[in-house]
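Data card: per-record layout.
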Amino acid sequence: MENELVPPETKGKNTDLENSVELDTKEEAMFTFKKACNRMLNPAAWHNLCGPASAEFTLTGDKGGEEYRLAAKGDYFKIDIPGPGPSAGDGYDWVRVEFLEEIDNPGNDEESCGMKLRASAAPNTAGNDTAHFFNEDATSSFIIHRKGNKVTASYHGRNEAPNNATGKITDNIRNSMIAMGAFAFLSELQWSALIKGFLTNEII
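The structure for this 204-residue chain is written out next.
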């Protein structure tokens, strides 16, 4: 299972972000942990957690139809980033839920849940071009961890390189421009807000 949740960095850019809260009681910490895990697996709530200028996320199944449940391995997230989207994804960026993990270690009073997303082609399409501004090697991993009364949410981006070798010149240009924005720390602002939002009491 090593490196399945957070793969090694081999090219491009990597990002590591973390936010923690300390609760007064173990019961509060366990409740916050469970709530954070559910929010992590509910991309429909991410826009509200990140703020009005952020992307919007929709959970879909392997055929591309919208789903109203928590994410599972093999599902897709349809991402609506402000501005033009890639033609390969019918105007949307796409990632696939590649790996989910839950670990419970009551002996050490700790537990964790994690999810890895990978840039992908749109589901149920004839083409195989990756429909994302990063190429298919890029992953985004989210981890929620509780140790005692402390709950931590973290984000780990790996192998973040522009997806500028598709079969469409317009997509290559668009993806390079969006990736440059991500490299300029715009994505870090969104992910920082998201992992903080995983741990907040209420969604605004």
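Known properties of this structure: The beta strands are 13-22, 56-60, 76-80, 93-105, 110-119, 139-147, 150-160. The mean pLDDT is 92.

See the next section for split statistics.
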